[in-house]
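FAQ: What does a ligand-bound record look like?

Like this one, built around NAP:
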Amino acid sequence: MTQTSHPTSLGGTVNFARYSVARVGYGAMQLRNSSGDREAAIALVKRAIALGVNHIDTAEFYGDGFVNHVLRDALRGEPDVVVVTKIGADPNPGQESPIRFAQRPEELRASVERNLKSLGLEQIPLVNLRRADIGPHIAKGDQLVDIEDQIATMVALREEGKIATIGLSAVSLDIVRRASSAGIACVQNAYSLVDREFEDVFRFCAETNLAWVPFFPLGGAVRGMPKVTEQPEVIAVADRLGATPSQVGLAWLLKQSENTLLILGTSSVAHLEENCAAGSVTLDEDAMRELDAIKVGQGAIC
Ligand SMILES: NC(=O)c1ccc[n+]([C@@H]2O[C@H](COP(=O)([O-])OP(=O)(O)OC[C@H]3O[C@@H](n4cnc5c(N)ncnc54)[C@H](OP(=O)(O)O)[C@@H]3O)[C@@H](O)[C@H]2O)c1
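The answer part, i.e. the structure of the complex:
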């Protein structure tokens, strides 16, 4: 993966699937919290674009289509923004859990159709197949589907032109290897300064030049999960460098490999602006040593 030009604060630009994107992108999941203020959600996405973000991660099941509809409206007239969605789960309105697994091939196909509609696209630039075979929420019964059957459906959708490229999410190294002959554009797994469970998958991606898109880059928003910004080592490094804890956590991720692309999750414009400056933070050797020494846990995946 070759790194080309600016914007520097966004970590430069890399080739991602068929596209060229800033290394700092935006993960839109937190916008589901803004369903009471649609205009504010649209304004936040537009601010991200104005800052140079041109890679946005979403899912139909974020707020039962709300987030996709916000993106459709915010990105009108922005053909160069690469929208990435994920399938493998669907909205489950009116039920105890707002999301249900949808792993079967016919469900994957139906999810792509729904995403096309809600995003207002004729083709989705990249679709991640979000697997459900690693914890803590594991699919059971007919929702446990072989990766080969799912990939065959994804390839068919690509041949039909409904999706341009295929990615994987929440996957083990074994699944990445089994799917790779289909031509995989990226892997999106949980990974951060406080969660390095998928170090083997990260290393494989770095060695094979496959885009690595860590989700929960700051440890996620789920209560009870460790937060990057609360680690004493992160706070100490931030104070010393005149940066903020979130910028330090994100700069550490950018430094892990050239093929790491961030999808920052926030519903706050102030946090968005702060986080989008992470590429300008230079972590020296001392800082890296301190950060690398942080004790990490096994992350949860939601
Ligand atoms: N493939 C998958 O299964 C999967 C799973 C989860 C997420 N994702 C994707 O990954 C993206 C990122 O994950 P995420 O949003 O869950 O987690 P995250 O980016 O690690 O953390 C988001 C949390 O950090 C807070 N935050 C953001 N900037 C901050 C700052 N500067 N200072 C202090 N707190 C800050 C946010 O609060 P505020 O809103 O108040 O800023 C929010 O509570 C998601 O948006 C989604 O697109 C994918």
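Follow-up question: can I read anything off the structure? Yes, for example: The mean pLDDT is 94.
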